[in-house]
What does this fold into?
Amino acid sequence: MSMHSLYLLVPLAPLAGSLLAGLFGRQLGRAGSHTVTILGVALSFLASLVIARDVFAGHLFNGPVYTWLSVEDITMSVGFLIDPLTVTMMLVVTFVSLMVHIYTIGYMEEDPGYQRFFSYISLFTFSMLMLVMANNFLQLFFGWEAVGLVSYLLIGFWYTRPTAIYANLKAFLVNRVGDLGFLLGIGLILAHFGSLDYATVFERAPLVAHDTIELVSGSPVSLMTVVCILLFIGAMGKSAQMPLHVWLPDSMEGPTPISALIHAATMVTAGIFMVSRMSPLFELSETARSVVLVIGASTALFMAFLGIIQNDIKRVVAYSTLSQLGYMTVALGASAYPVAIFHLGTHAFFKALLFLGAGSVIHAMHHEQDMRNMGGLRKYMPITYVTALIGSLALSGIPPFAGFFSKDAIIEAVQASSLPGAGYATFAVMAGVFVTAFYSFRMLFMTFHGKPRMDEHTREHLHESPWVITLPLILLAIPSVVAGYMAIDPMVMGNYFGNAITVLPGNGGLHVLREEWHGVGAFMAHGVTALPFWLAIAGIACAAAFYLKWTGVPDIFMARLRGLYTLLDNKYYFDRFNEIVFAGGAREVGTGLWRVGDMRLIDGVMVNGSANLVGRLSARLRRVQTGYIYHYAFIMIFGVFILMSLWFVKA
Amino acid sequence: MIDFPILIFSAFALVLLAAGVGVITARNPVHAALFLVLAFFTGSGLWLMLEAEFLAIALVLVYVGAVMVLFLFVVMMLNIDLDRLREGFWKHLPLGAGVALLMVAEMLLVVTSKQFSTLGSSLPPSPGNISNTRELGLVLYTDYVYPFELAAVILLVAIVAAIALTLRRRKDSKHLDPAWQVRVRASDRIRIVSMRSEKDQ
Amino acid sequence: MTFATPNLVPVYPEIFLLVALSAILIADLFVSETHRFLTYAYTQLALVGTAGFLVLGATGVPLTTFGGMFVDDPMARTLKLVAVLAVALMLAYSRSYNQQRGLFRGEFHVLILFALLGIMVMVSANHFLVLYLGLELLSLSMCALIALQRDSAQSTEAAMKYFVLAALASGLLLYGLSMLYGATGSLQMALVSNSILSGSADPAILVFGLVFVVAGLAFKLGVVPFHMWVPDVYEGAPTAVTLFVSTAPKIAAFAFFMRLLVGALGSLVSDWQSMLVIVSVLSMLVGNVTAIAQTNIKRMLAYSTISHMGFLLLGILSGSLGGYAAAMFYVVAYVLMSLGAFGVILLLGREGFEADQLDDFKGLNKRNPWVAFMMLLIMISMAGVPVSVGFFAKLSVLSAVLDAGMTWLVVVAVLMSLIGAFYYLRVIKLMYMDEPEDTTPIVAEADHRILIGLNALAILVLGILPQPLIDLCLASITQSMRG
It folds into this structure.
């Protein structure tokens, strides 16, 4: 089989699985459906492995597979760009997806929508692969929208729950804001580069690096800055950066495998991947990178705080995901793209592990998600406990677990950065380490240690999950331990990515990082003596103190710091802000971007019947349709009058 | 001294305008229809002045002679309550009149512009002994055969539409089919049944 | 005087259609009520024959006949063919609907063919008079069709409204055309165009006439503020007629714009461009926003049509050949989508029940997954989601506008289509996420089911492989408009 057809096989195998399970699910039955989809994804994973070996042997590929259409001089085609960056993403996506597929067999066994679910997650895998393998912006956008659509379908999978419907509308609408930015960015690229092909655009980028455009006439701004910020707005939507993060916590209404696959490991990293892919563009705009840095750092720290006060086990993991995405974004801002991808990879493993571990607990607890009703589960679920412990250690950044390497590399890269806002970012990621360690161990202790707090009935039925659930946990735990140790040398320090990622000399921390590199051992030794490690240890110690030893302390804190707690409990009032500002229709506040957020108001009308701007306008316009013919005729005459006046005004 | 044709034109035009206003303000629908007839007459007078004799005659014959008579019949038969139609007239008048005035103002600006007024003066003088009707007849079936045929098709549609919308068999119709009546047999009318005789009480 | 018989070859399709429909009109008299299917079959045969003449007679170069009143060019051929196809599909979709409601009559079929003839005349018109006659032929037939269900007060009211407003619009149009005639001294498009180019016509009168012409055209297309008839007619007319009203006449309206504004008044582009911008923005705004508040799906689609026509105008107002081709692509795509959407509504209806409420679509996936999936494809295409023909239609008009340098207009249009996506997605949500309220099994004729499937798949396939259609539109426009 030629490599060319192997490239095609990678996305098409999951698509075939999805179509079979989706259209003929009833005929195939449950076992048939999960067999075909797992087979498809497994095939895709194996093909990715073969391609990876080929790529590291030096065989890159960039070319069209089939031409979609060409209008005048613009060609739109489906094409693949196979390089180390793509292959890394392909491996992560197919591997995590395969694990989630297997896990789903156990998790969803009692669900009536079993076949539909498998069809969706395979469809998602296909879309995600199209996204990462794209060699042009159009295909990227297609994948981008498609993963969004599947995510939307999956968040609302249990559509009988009103909260799920609300959450999926929210996700959809917030993502529209991001997509609008992304689309405008692509439009600008098309207008100024005359092409949608990556290679062509990147080639021409240095030529237009100093071009300016006038958004408001009279004040020129750098073209590259505008393009990059618009693209980053797209990334903010998908990768849930502040202030477009509001949808991700609510997306936990979806089934847990989805939270692991889409909202932790793959889709939310699409933004990170996209920015890395666009590194030749971002390298040309310091302003844009500075924006990226600051937004990432804010997300990393502030979302971590929210993780502390959550009691829903999935929400803790969700906020931790937000915070970790913030870390990746910080790395992007510091021009350390390989580090961001590295963290993306390690995070995908340990976060999927934590999600699936949480899912295993939820499954055992009969869909109870409140940690206050858990405790002492260590005895009943030893495998889940051990894997969750590994995940937490990795998340906290304790050597030699995977998270340590990637997080430390990020911190060092930021420290070396000289962009405006780098000082703030350094502080944020440092403080974030402590908070991360604290909330992840708080979760671990509340769930698995201490006295059991669940009711009798649930306790009697507690048992370790079946092998289809524990097997993925174990398989994910292995890379969560070793991936960092094994990958940091080639991936970050070596020339792993080749030409896939561009870092201009003099831009940021990666070069410093590489200069100071003296091997894995030295890195670890250095890490153990450095501040972040001790911050993490302190976080774990605090968690142990508050939740194992002096369990009354948190309540005292809560009572003393009521104001702070309320602020956190309301998630910094982002949701309230959106509701009040947009629902009130305060035009002065809404910028053009935010006004798209008005879209969410429409769902307010439809779902809640509450009055709002578009809804009222709609109702009013509807009332114009009176049914009286003379009104209609009058409006027509009035139209003629307007057209004629227009001409007079012009003349 | 005013030019005689201009005097005639002004007279016709004034009457035409007055008749137009009469059509929409008359309380009695029959009066409104008669005002319309008057408007057509004066309109055809204006056409005569432009030496468009055929059109003038056609207007009188077709509109006044046929269409309006039919219209009057319908109006008289239906007894339309005009007052109901005029409901809200005063309520809507200010807005309607405002827009109308603005429209008129704008149109006046165009019509009185310099270029517009020069248009009429450049009309070529018409040759003397030419028959309007003959010329129309010559081109109607030759150069203009395509639009003529299309007009015929439109009339056909009108016929089909009128029949489709009005003709229908009433369910309670007492209509009898003579063919069936002729073909009737005794057995259709009388059924002979044999009954057991009953004893007298 | 001498008179040469005009070349009739380019007019064969129209002549055939007229002869065939006259024959059907007569033949229908002799067809008994139980064999009414024959009339339907004859009608379809007449359409096939017309299509045959259209395809076989295509020359690829613009030809005129009847002293330049009739023009036959690739654009006309393509548009006529699409119109014939749309009518054929429309008749197939509405067959059982009509049978159940006493509309399966000879008059229905004949009037539809008359309307089609009107469309074809308009598409090929090269003379103001012919254009107007074609328009009246279409309007009159449409009016009769809307009122055909005599017992329904709603239908009668809708027909009445359409009739009166169409008369008003015709008046405006004629007034405008007479101004143009006064300024240029000709009714022939080419001569009018030459006269304007030579500078002998007075610009003030031209633009004054143009205002009224645009108003008349806008009414035909049903764009704001000349759109008021659209929702009432869509809702009031029998669904079969609504299907017709929403498809083929839009093709005629597009041709109407092309012939009049581009063909005859092309050099006034800067004047009509700004008028169309207003009309188009208003249509996208009013159409999309009002559609959200609708509970009746026919009304919702009416507002959706208004917004689609706003998009269509974007292509025309960009004033370039690429823009015209994009608008042509848009109208073809729109016709396909509209056919499908109303086809599904017709399919769901049954005796004594119209599936015209949004709630009737609740849980459709549970009742009939195949039909729900078809509707899903149609809705995502209408919303302009990628990999559907609707996406390319929007993309191509927007890129034409971008080329014309009106970036703000593109931003407005994208925002409006985002608002629009909401109500299309609501239909999908109703179909897939709600429980059905009505569990009557869905029965439909085999031909109806198959054709709906083909229709929806065409939307998908043209979304994946739009190139042939794009090329066809571009070729039609370039060959026709440079002739």
